Amino acid sequence: MEELQSIVWHNGRVRILDQTRLPGELVLLEISDHHGVVKAIKQLSIRGAPAIGIAAAYGVVLSIWEMEESDRSAFFERVNQAIELLRASRPTAKNLFWALESMRQVLTRHLNRPVHEIRGALLQEAQRIQADDLERCRQIGRYGAALLTPSCAVLTHCNAGALATAGHGTALGIVRSAISLGKKVRVFACETRPLLQGARITAFELHEDAIPVTVLCDNMAAHVMSRSMVQFVIVGADRIARNGDTANKIGTFGLAILARHFRIPFYVAAPLSTFDLDLRNGEQIPIENRGDEEVRCCGSLTAVPEGVPVLNPAFDVTPGALIDAFITEKGILRSPYDASLDPIKNLNLIP
Ligand code: MRU
């Protein structure tokens, strides 16, 4: 499974595994310009906070890949426009803005260089962001694996796995690392309505790796927890505010309340690129609202009577107080988060 990557750079194009088609079909989208990357992000062909950031970084590269050497002003106009379009593709995941900021800094540093050098530097930066994310996931895996007991079941939501990152995964990276240490870990994957990332993507990638996984409908979590079938809840994150409030896939908040009720540890696994220390609390996190049709239909089934309104927020915010720990590539942060997150800022780990 580690070979199945969400995005690969190949000869002036990117290949994106279309996650909307999983698990039925393995379709690679070959994309040659930034508009194609924006579309792939918006329609969730590539999704998951770190993977969105990586895709956006390559989108910046594609925007100027074939531009003429001579026209410097058109070059800068194009790349700046591309950054703005990519920024507007999805609002919640901090990693998107973080990656684009890194790309902008490289652009600024090379401003007076010949166009071909700037192009090379931007590609190098996108590749660095991708390789760095894989390393961060492996570190998260190492720290998180130590928290798991020798034989346990982990409940997760949505997909915070290899396909949501550069590889290995955050929440699922912990499961993978624990298994490689010889621990016996089983996973319960909440299906994650409306778009079923848990059932379609988490179950797919774990099953490919022969990691035991059982899918449950979102409304079965309380039952499963009440029967002591779950020892840990581990999820990923899209954006984490300074006080630990965390935006993740809609439904995460409910799972955190349940976990507290049943005294099950609730962990958030995320790289530091997901933390937004400019935000005081979760109320300041922009929450994406997606189209009605995602809720109205379940596959080919019309699930809601015509004329009845629906809601479709893609994320909710779990209060930091319900999160027992954050598992990051630099170690484990425990509450109170104002105190434990501040040193990260001082260490300048977040640009
Ligand atoms: O709408 P999605 O599928 O992009 O939502 C993804 C999630 O909520 C993930 O849990 C989060 O991005 C973390 S991925 C490591």
User: Helical amount among residues, as a percent range?
Assistant: 25-40%
Head-to-tail CA distance between termini: 31 Å
Order of helices and strands: EEEHHHHHEHEHEHEEEHEHEEEEEH
**What is the number of strand segments?**
15
The biggest beta sheet reads: 7 strands, mixed
Protein model, in words:
It is a single chain. By secondary structure, this protein is α/β, with parallel strands linked by helices. It has 2 domains: 7-137, Four Helix Bundle (Hemerythrin (Met), subunit A) (Up-down Bundle); 142-346, Translation initiation factor eif-2b, domain 2 (Rossmann fold, 3-Layer(aba) Sandwich), CATH 3.40.50.10470. It is 40% helix and 17% strand. The chain has helices spanning 34-42, 49-64, 72-87, 94-109, 115-145, 171-180, 197-208, 221-226, 252-261, 293-296, 337-346, and strands at 7-10, 13-17, 28-31, 151-156, 184-190, 213-216, 232-235, 239-240, 246-249, 266-269, 297-298, 301-302, 315-318, 325-328, 331-334. The strands form 4 sheets. A 7-stranded mixed beta sheet has the order 6-5-4-7-10-14-15, sandwiched between helices. The chain has a 3-stranded antiparallel beta sheet with strand order 1-2-3, with helices on one face. The protein has a 3-stranded antiparallel beta sheet with strand order 8-9-13, covered by helices on one side. The longest helix is centred in the middle third of the chain and has 31 residues, at 115-145. The protein starts with 6 loop residues before the first strand and ends in a 5-residue tail after the last helix. Residues 346-351 have low confidence and may be disordered. 5-S-methyl-1-O-phosphono-5-thio-D-ribulose (MRU) binds at residues 44, 47-50, 93, 158, 160, 164-165, 170, 197, 235-238, 248-249, 314.
